[in-house]
Design a protein that fits this description.
Strand content of chain B: 5-15%
Largest sheet of chain A: 6 strands, mixed
Largest interface: A-B, 33 and 39 residues
Number of strands of chain B: 9
Largest sheet of chain B: 9 strands, parallel
Strand order of the largest sheet of chain B: 5-4-3-2-1-9-8-7-6
Strand content of chain A: 15-25%
Structural class of chain A: alpha/beta
CATH topology of the largest domain in chain A: Rossmann fold
Distance between the termini of chain A: 43 Å
Helix content of chain A: 40-55%
Oligomer: heterodimer
CATH class of the largest domain in chain A: Alpha Beta
Order of helices and strands of chain A: EEHHEHEHEHEHHEHEHHEHEHEEHEHHEH
Structural class of chain B: alpha/beta
Chain lengths: ~400, ~260
């Protein structure tokens, strides 16, 4: 079984590029050039230097002793929360902004849910002196205010998406419309492993630094370069794609994703795409999405803005379809409790998105000698209001 | 060779072909048939029936609004086909269905083609259907039902791709006037004129119609100096939204443009 993207842009039956002609020249240019650009030694040198000196990579792989004792297994945390801007998102924005410059683009647009990708995009645009516009759902602007302020301070323009559910899906629609209207001077930095080919593969490659480092770090700490399990939260699925990437073909490694169950998968208020969705087309990609029997996209719900998305990257749809990956849905409540527990047990306040990954520990029992790596994708500073006001 | 009302129209009628887009189920769920009849009576040459979608990324605010309203009204592809089951008793002009791929896939592509052909539809415009996938998976099915597929091209579409699209099209090519979502209106610029001239000089086997940003008599006339005709969508939807008397207002709208 092949888990990476094929020549035509598909992961099994998922992926492709289902875009109107207005987007075709931009996406085609990207498809033709992304691999050549990424593989240029000069690009790699600049990318690696920025990851090292600016982002602060490699991020630590931390043995969480108290959490391990609690769950009677060996838990390592991949500390993406310690990256500059506080999440894994910047791995991708650094890569894409360098690519955009080589494509001669002067303006950058992005969509954002929790604001982490928006902040990471605004950050690299400030770093490179590029104009930046970030689309963000009106609801998310209200619930992730600290990140909105950060983006503005970094010089980005934050445009509210006011259509539909006014969350990540609608911000993505607006960003795509903006790109249609500005086809020549603008690059669209998609923040997750979603969208038309080559985005899912390109973003996964930029995020794959996560699993490349895990391999090296485990070699030192455990004397072998793979864990028994990797756990990550999945909205579109970029941190999961990065954490899984170098283990996709190693069947000894269990790949576990945590989807946002919202108020429960039967509640009508959920974002558990794989549990509730069906194959279809959203944002330029054939994937699993939450939809009515008539093919209208269902408005999702999650307490976490970053997971509040009715689709999922085609890689993850394929991992689920082939049963290479196991995906659990975690309710708002389970995630919030897990976030609180991690805060008090390890002294780390995780983003609510990431808290979904920790809730897997209450769902699945691991062996005492299992090496379990959890991708700690982001820190929870942005979520303080939600944490403080939640009725546990 | 496909033979339907659309291909026949371009064989007989030469110029100033007016195509009107509207969204099925807007403003009211049951308006679909009335709008079709009023358009035919008032002299429209081709009609595009829009199938509403929750996430129309190629559309501007006006058509987004009509899509959302139509969905709130309860419109679905199945309901649309019910509403137009007997429309060919009254309507003789070419009618196309336009929409995004996902609702069509959920309805089922074969069933979609069969039903469309059965009720008398002449072709489809599905802007997010990739050219390659159309050729490998669907073309023979559509050909078998005499259904035309209309592709979009934009000022950024390279000549080689335009030629490829021309090669596999039967009917017309939808020339998007400027790189934009629908409903952006402004006077036709020098660069657009150059683009249309470039298209004319390609001597394509298919005629092209100009769409996006065509809203009134002036822009329609101007487009028609470069192409066989033009397509109006958002401006028509805006008129429907404010209409108190659909047949009268539709007649006025069309006559003003055609006069």
């Amino acid at each position: 079984m092949i888990y990476t993207v094929n020549e035509a842009g598909y992961y099994g039956k998922f992926g492709g590029a289902y875009i109107p002609e207005m987007l075709y020249p931009n996406v085609e240019e990207l498809r033709e050039r992304y691999l050549d650009i990424i593989n240029e030694p000069a690009f790699q040198q600049e990318f690696q230097e920025l990851l090292h000196d600016y982002v602060g990579r490699p991020s630590p792989l931390y043995f969480a002793k108290r959490l391990s004792d609690l769950y009677n297994t060996k838990i390592y945390l991949k500390r993406e929360d310690l990256n500059h801007t506080g999440a894994h998102k910047i791995n991708n924005t650094i890569g894409q902004v360098l690519l955009a410059k080589r494509l001669g683009k002067q303006k950058i647009i992005a969509e954002t849910g929790a604001g982490q990708h928006g902040v990471a995009t605004a950050t690299v645009c400030a770093l490179m002196g590029l104009e930046c516009i970030v689309y963000m759902g009106e609801i998310d602007i209200a619930r992730q205010r600290p990140n909105v302020e950060r983006m503005k301070m970094l010089g980005a323009k934050v445009v509210p998406a006011t259509s539909g559910s006014r969350t990540l899906k609608d911000a993505t629609n607006e960003a795509m419309r903006h790109w249609i209207n500005n086809p020549t001077d603008t690059h669209y930095i998609i923040g997750s492993v979603v969208g038309p080919h080559p985005y899912p593969d390109m973003v996964a490659r930029f995020q794959s630094v996560i699993s490349a480092e895990i391999k090296q770090q485990l070699q030192t700490k455990e004397g072998r370069d793979y864990p028994d399990y990797v756990i990550a939260c999945v909205g579109g699925g970029s941190n999961a794609a990065g954490a899984f990437y170098h283990f996709l073909d190693n069947q000894k490694v269990g790949l576990i994703g945590a989807e946002a169950g919202g108020l429960g998968i039967d509640s009508g208020k959920s974002a558990a795409t794989l549990a509730l969705g069906k194959i279809g087309i959203l944002h330029g990609s054939k994937t699993v999405l939450m939809q009515t029997t008539d093919g209208q996209v269902v408005e999702p719900h999650s307490i976490s803005a970053g997971l509040d998305y009715p689709g999922i990257g085609p890689l993850h749809a394929h991992l689920s379809d082939t049963q290479r990956g196991q995906f659990y849905s975690i309710t708002d409540d389970e995630a919030m409790r897990a976030g609180l527990l991690v805060s008090r047990t390890e002294g780390i306040i995780p983003a609510i998105e990431t808290a979904h990954a920790f809730a897997i520990l209450t769902k699945k029992t691991f062996q005492v000698n299992d090496v379990v790596v959890i991708c700690l994708s982001g820190r929870g500073d942005k979520d303080l209001d939600t944490y403080v006001n939640y009725q546990y | 060779m496909i033979q339907n009302r659309l291909t026949k129209l371009f064989q007989t009628s030469q110029q100033n072909i007016l195509t009107i887009y509207f969204t099925a189920g807007f403003p009211q769920l049951r308006d679909t048939q009335r709008i079709l009849e009023a358009l035919e009576q008032s002299g429209a040459d081709i009609i595009e029936i829009g199938m509403p979608f929750s996430d129309p990324i190629a559309d501007g605010e006006v058509i987004q609004m009509s899509n959302q309203q139509a969905l709130e009204n309860g419109m679905t592809i199945a309901k649309m086909f019910e509403q137009i089951a007997n429309f060919r008793q009254k309507i003789k002009i070419p009618v196309l269905l336009m929409g995004y791929l996902n609702p069509v896939l959920q309805f089922g592509m074969e069933r979609f083609c069969q039903t469309a052909a059965q009720v008398g539809i002449d072709g489809f415009i599905l802007p997010d259907l990739p050219l390659n996938e159309y050729l490998s998976d669907y073309k023979s099915l559509w050909d078998a039902h005499n259904l035309s597929n209309v592709f979009l091209i934009t000022p950024q579409t390279p000549e080689s791709r335009i030629r490829m699209i021309d090669e596999v099209s039967e009917g017309f090519i939808y020339a998007v006037s400027t790189s934009s979502t629908t409903g952006k209106t402004s006077a036709i610029s020098a660069s657009q004129t150059a683009y249309f001239a470039r298209l004319q000089a390609l001597n394509l086997k298919n005629p092209f119609l100009i769409g996006f940003g065509i809203s009134d008599k002036a822009s329609f006339r101007q487009a028609c100096t470069h192409a066989r005709g033009a397509i109006i969508g958002s401006a028509f939807i805006k008129m429907l939204q404010n209409s108190q008397d659909l047949p009268v207002d539709i007649a006025n709208f069309v006559q003003k443009i055609k006069s």
